[in-house]
Amino acid sequence: MKICFHCRRELDLSTRPGRGDSCPHCGSDIKACLNCRFYDVTSYNECWEPSAGRVVDKDKANFCEFFDLGDASGEKAREDDPLQKLKDLFKS
Fold it and tell me: Which residue ranges make up each domain of the chain?
């Protein structure tokens, strides 16, 4: 299931998203790092693809050649974020 990183709603796409495509529900860019299957907050440049160039704005559309719309939009990477786990320990 393909999910928008911003609104967490399902994306119904029949073709590969382009740089100008946006989520029909919230308007966020679809071809953004946060929607890519290679996105990982714990990896160098926050990307599993070693040949990918650095992208500063992870929530904005980019020209990355390696973009592949991922399932659950990096949810695993966010769950495994050690900094977030530490912050969760000290919540009141």
Answer: 1-92
pLDDT tens digit sequence for 24-48: 999 999 999 999 999 999 999 999 9
Identify the CA nearest to 82 among candidates 48, 43, 52, 36: 43
What would you measure as the largest C-alpha separation in the chain, in angstroms? 45
What are phi and psi for residue 90, nearest 5 degrees?
Answer: -105, 15
Matching residue, tokens 């592949």: 68
Give the end-to-end CA distance of the chain in Å, rounded to a whole number. Answer: 34
* Ramachandran area for residue 12 (φ above 0: left; ψ -120 to 50: alpha; else beta): beta
